[in-house]
Amino acid sequence: MRTRTFVPGLVAAAALIAGAVVVGPAASSAVPPGERAAQAGPQQLVDAQRHEKKDPVPAIGRRWAAAWMTTDTRDLARLYTKDAVYTDRALNLVFRGRAGVVEWETGSHQLVGDLGFEVRRGFRGSDGVVVEGVFTGHITGAPRPFAVPVVTVLRLRGNLIRSSDDYYNRGEILSDSGLPADWTPTGN
Questions:
Q1: Is residue 117 in some structural domain?
Q2: Domain interval for residue 144
Q3: Domain containing 88 — which CATH number?
Q4: What pLDDT, on the 0 to 100 scale, is given for residue 32?
Q5: Which of 19, 77, 112, 137 would give a disulfide with 98, using CB separation of 3.0 to 4.6 Å?
Q6: Cα 163 → chain centroid
């Protein structure tokens, strides 16, 4: 499997979109530090709280990534406002409201087995967060799994996500998966 790195211009553009500044690399664990702390003993709790303060990825970005990997699609939807908009830029798909977020995540898990998102970096702006990571999985029926870079821009209203935009290269996913460039889930 090939390893890819982000084009610095894409990362800089995503940071500008969110009005953010780069805060540095993050731990690669997809489990939010706060969740690890909630399951720990007293000393582990203190250690986890110290780590959480040093973790440059905003908490909402870690919760968002972790929610993608749960079996309950409502976990992701709960992070969004009732009138949220979820946009997948690579597929040009838009989903509205929490029900739309559930629909998108459900469909994604049906199409992609072993779906994962490894958080690599995070950026924070006045009303948004950019999460940079690696999207992984195995498309149903594809000969191979894929691993591609992804940037997601989360716009916030209070502590909830009012909109999110996913940016990744659909062609890379298909190429990694051993599928033709014109492949669609319906076979058309």
A1: yes
A2: 8-177
A3: 3.10.450.50
A4: 41
A5: 77
A6: 13
Residue 17 pLDDT > 70, yes or no?
no
Q: Which two tokens stand for residue 39?
A: 């399951």
Question: 118: closest CA among 13, 38, 37, 3?
Answer: 3
Question: What one-letter code names the amino acid at 10?
Answer: L
Amino acid at 60: I
Evaluate if residue 48 carries a pLDDT over 70.
Answer: no
**pTM, whole model, 2 decimals?**
0.71
- Could you read off the pLDDT of 93-149 as tens digits, one per residue? 999 999 999 999 999 999 999 999 999 999 899 899 999 999 999 999 999 999 999
Both tokens of 50, joined, read 């110290």
The SS3 of residue 159 is coil
Q: Which one, of 24, 7, 6, lies nearest residue 122 by Cα?
A: 24
| Tokens at 170, concatenated | 């659909």
How do residues 165-180 score in pLDDT, each as one tens digit? 999 999 999 999 999 9
Does the residue 1 lie in any domain?
Answer: no
Q: Cβ distance 99 to 76 under 8 Å?
A: no
In a domain, 79, yes or no: yes
Using alpha carbons, list the distances in angstroms from residue 73 to 11, 101, 139.
28, 8, 19
